Amino acid sequence: MTIEFQVEGMSCQHCVAAVTRAIREHDGAAQVQVDLATGRVAVESTQPAETLKAAIDEAGYTVTNVASGAAR
């Protein structure tokens, strides 16, 4: 399933790497796409959105919106 997060606090490639790493710690096979300019993080994962949101929060970033889509 694809889950889209709106994330605040990302300002550089280090932030992109930190968010990606945090997600992959919970799902090593996750496909993560981060758009730094818009703060959009799209994740293809089998993990629940709540688990991934918590991982992003624990990495020090703020999730302001979560939208789940169908499996691709």
TrEMBL record:
Pfam family of the protein (one): HMA
Record-annotated HMA domain positions: 1-64
Keywords noted in UniProt: Metal-binding
InterPro entries xrefs: Heavy-metal-associated_CS (IPR017969), HMA_dom (IPR006121), HMA_dom_sf (IPR036163)
Family annotation (PROSITE patterns): HMA_1, HMA_2
GO molecular function (one): metal ion binding
The protein's name: Copper chaperone
Organism: Paraburkholderia lacunae
